[in-house]
Amino acid sequence: MFAATGTSEPWRASYRASRDESLSTSTIVCAAVIPPIVIVMTAYMLTLEPATRAFRLWLGSAYAVVCAVVAVLWLLGVLQRHATAISMAFALALTVLAAVYWRLLPQTAGGAISTLLVIQMGAALVFPWGPWCQSVLSAGIVVAYVWLVSQAPENFQPYAAGLLVTTAPLMIFAAGLVERY
Asked: Which of 123, 109, 87, 104 is nearest to 156 (CA)?
């Protein structure tokens, strides 16, 4: 479906040559934007639930560390040379942190699905890594949700779970389109 058409397309070679550059740029932009959002949300949640301070500060720091590692890899030029692998590790790390966050703070686990959907849909549209990488990420996101629900069954929402599972193939298709065009 997403295979090359077999014709000589000069733009395709040019695209492939700049794919890692595009992917590393998308990744570093995400790594730069996420910490301020996490800081604001952590501060806001601390005003609402001061008893969760230790967990929220630890998890906020974990997000910042993941983003800082990506920034260091970018500065060292490693991200540019291994953009697909590092971008995948980054997206999966964000997914794991989201699942751990809701596992440690089950009173807010109802919002887990929205974050997992944002990661799944955002990655498909922002990271030009194609359908295979998106398939791995989507599978990881579904596994994270299953793990979360298995640890806290009261948080299972059939509609939300259905939404997460049905958007996975759509995002895989979208990732193929982004890569192709």
From this structure: 109
pTM: 0.84
129: left (phi over 0), alpha (psi -120 to 50) or beta: alpha
CB 27 within 8 A of CB 70: yes
- pLDDT grade for 64, boundaries at 50, 70 and 90: very high
Average pLDDT, the chain: 86
3-state helix, strand, coil in the chain (%, to 5): 90, 0, 10
Measured between alpha carbons, how far is 103 from 146 in angstroms, rounded to an integer? 12
At residue 111, φ and ψ (nearest 5 deg) are -85, 0
